[in-house]
Design goal:
Length: 285
């Protein structure tokens, strides 16, 4: 049997993890038909928390000690608002187009890090940012429906908030290990997102609860595969494959909702892949 190189194995793991993340988006779209947005956001976070508890138990109680509560709370707050925005976009747009909007966040991170963390932003990175935005505009033509303007604005807000959370992780990672960051995000988002649930509760079919459970399992599998991938190979070698989620989203949208993708969508995917390629290869950010 031919042995695969670490880079190839890492790329396959990234593809698997991105398929899981696109599957989460499909579950969100599926549950949006029966559940309120408050329920969708809460159960997505609660399912992730349940998956995290055994991991934290294995890590030991020392992993929970922190003196940077304000950063954990800040990340959870921006994360909750981003989820509300993104889940709303998923419920209104074809899944493939909705996932394209979220892919803007990697291109926004350098802007925030440049202002907040005073990190250097190269000319290649600036070019990648411009191309990333151009790819999204190609994928979601504004002439199709007037409502797309509002949806794009909500999607851009979600992408910006995701970028803020990622920059916050970078800022706190000097003292906070990954397990602590992920656990407190799951715990705080579950607690915060529960607040509006009693006021917006609907009876749900068993299939919706099964979809909520699938979100937690897909999140765990995706995170585990992604973590192992980056342990096998550097991000600059495999980072381009993180954009494959839009391909899986297009496939899921076609299979489950018969959502066709346009030539503009394919062009947008190509532009974003190229933008991701030129920014990840430089190893500067």
């Amino acid at each position: 049997m031919l042995a695969l190189s670490p880079v190839v194995r890492a790329a396959l793991l990234i593809l698997f993890s991105e398929a899981c993340f696109a599957g989460i988006g499909a579950c969100v779209k599926l549950t949006s038909a029966d559940a309120s947005q408050a329920q969708v956001v809460f159960f997505r976070n609660f399912a992730a928390l349940l998956v995290m508890i055994p991991w934290i138990w294995h890590q030991g109680p020392q992993i929970l000690r922190t003196e940077r509560w304000y950063l954990h709370l800040s990340r959870a707050t921006t994360g909750i608002i981003s989820m509300y925005c993104f889940f709303y976009v998923i419920s209104k747009l074809p899944l493939a187009q909705a996932m394209m909007v979220l892919l803007l966040s990697p291109f926004i991170v350098p802007l925030i890090a440049h202002v907040w963390l005073r990190e250097r932003t190269s000319a290649i990175t600036w070019l990648g940012i411009v191309l990333g935005f151009a790819g999204v505009f190609l994928a979601i033509p504004m002439h199709e429906t007037s409502s797309n303007h509002g949806l794009l604005a909500v999607g851009l807000l979600s992408a910006c908030l995701v970028a803020v959370t990622k920059t916050t992780i970078r800022y706190m990672s000097d003292t906070e290990p990954a397990a602590r960051i992920v656990f407190y995000f799951s715990l705080l988002t579950a607690l915060i997102s529960f607040i509006p649930v009693p006021m917006d509760w609907h009876e749900l079919p068993a299939s919706t609860y099964m979809a909520f459970a699938a979100m937690g399992l897909l999140a765990a599998a995706g995170q585990m595969a992604m973590t192992q991938a980056y342990a096998l190979a550097p991000a600059s070698d495999i980072g381009i494959w993180t954009y494959s989620s839009v391909i899986f989203a297009g496939l899921f949208g076609y299979i489950f909702w018969s959502e066709a993708v346009s030539l503009g969508w394919f062009a947008g995917v190509a532009v974003i892949f190229y933008a991701g390629y030129i920014t990840s290869r430089q190893r500067l950010f």
